[in-house]
Amino acid sequence: MLDAAEESLLPTEADVHFYKRHGYFVSEKIFSDQEIDALLEEAGRYYGGHRDRRIPFIPKGATYWREGDATDLRQNNYITYESLSMRAILLKPLVGAIAAKLAETSESRLFIDVLRYKAPGRDRNTTIGWHIDRHYWQMFTSDAMLAGFIPLHDCYEEHGTIVMVDDSNQWHETSTPDESTALHFAQRGLNDLEQRLAIEAKANNADIKTVPIRLNKGQVCFHNSLTYHGSFPNVSERPRQTISLHFQDKENRYRRYPLPSGNLAAHHTEQLCARLDNDDPDYTDPEYFPVLWAG
Question: For position 71, what pLDDT does the model report?
C-alpha cells in the first residue's frame, strides 16, 4: 500500500502521455537523502567485498566487477540479491507503482539491476554507447519493459548522466536482431553503436535529438526499453555512482527466439532462475524476479 504522500508522487495522466510519446519520464524526489546516503555507503561496502548473501555462481554474461578488475567503469548485477539493505531501499512499493503506471500494467516485477561506478576524468574509458534494451531482450514477449536510473548524488552533464534520444521509442527497429542480441551492449564497439543509431534514425526519417537528463539527489529517470540512450564520460572531480533497475510488466514471459546461428536468444538470469515444466526459464520466479507492486 502507498500512503497519501507516496500517491502524490505517482505519474499523472499527462506524465504517462509524455512517457509514451518521448520514451522517458523524470520523477519527483522519491528517495530521501537518508536513503540515498545509505545506498552510497552500502555501495562502498559492496565494493570492499561485503555481501549479505551471495548468488550461487556468477552467470556467464553477467557484469560483475571485482577488486583487481579495471576501475574506470565498474558494473555489478545482482546487487539487490546480495545486499539486503540495498534491496530494502530500492525495491519499495512506490518504485514499482511508478513503473507499473508508466507501463500501464497492474504489476511490476524486477528483471535485473546494475550498480555502476564511473571514475572521473576525460581520458577514462567510461562512455556507454547508444543502445535500446529491447534489442538485447528478444527472449521476452513484452515491449513494455522499462528501466529506472537512480543516481546516488546530484547527476548532471559533467557527471556523465544518462542521455535519451527523444522520441526514439516511436521508431521501428529496422535491423533484424542478429547474433549481437546475445551480447551485452558494452561488448560492442562505440563506433558500431554510433553507426547503428544513425542508420536507425535515417530509416525512420527522424532527427537524433539528444536530451541529457539532469537529476537531483533522490530523483529517478524511467525509460522505455525501446528508447535509445547512453552516457558520456564523467568529467567532474568525483566518481559518478548510479543504480539501474529494470522492470517487467505483469504480462511479460519468456519466449523462444531463434537467432540466425540456430541458438536461442538468452539472458544470463536464465542460468539462475527456476524452470517451467517445459524447461523454459520462469521469469516470475520470486527468488530473482520479486514483485515490487501489484495493484
Answer: 82
Q: Give 251-286 pLDDT, tens digit per residue.
A: 999 999 998 888 999 999 999 999 999 999 999 999
DSSP result, 85-117: HHHHHHT-HHHHHHHHHHHT-SEEEEEEEEEEE
Number of H-type helices and E-type strands within the chain: 7, 11
User: pTM higher than 0.90 for the full model?
Assistant: yes
CB 53 within 8 A of CB 84: yes
Give the residue among 125, 139, 168, 194 at the shortest CA–CA distance from 23.
168
- Residue 72 CB neighbours (<10 A): 17
Positive or negative CA dihedral for 246, 252, 253, 258?
A: negative
Q: Which is it for the CA torsion 86, 90, 92, 96, positive or negative?
A: negative
Cα angle 117, 122, 213 (rounded to 5 degrees) comes to: 60
Torsion sign over Cα 89, 90, 91, 95: positive
Question: Residue 125 — very low, low, confident or very high, per pLDDT cuts 50/70/90?
Answer: confident
- Show the cell assigned to 195: 553507426
Q: Do 254 and 264 meet the contact criterion of CB atoms below 8 Å apart?
A: no
Q: Contact 15/221 with Cβ under 8 angstroms?
A: no
Contacts of 188 (CB under 8 A, 6+ apart): 129, 131, 180
Tell me the C-alpha distance between 34 and 162, whole Å.
23
Which residues have a Cβ under 8 Å from the Cβ of 23 and sit 6 or more positions away?
Answer: 164, 165, 166, 167, 168, 169, 170, 223, 224, 226, 227
* SS3 at position 48: coil
Higher pLDDT, 280 or 189: 280
Question: What is the DSSP code (8-state) at residue 77?
Answer: E
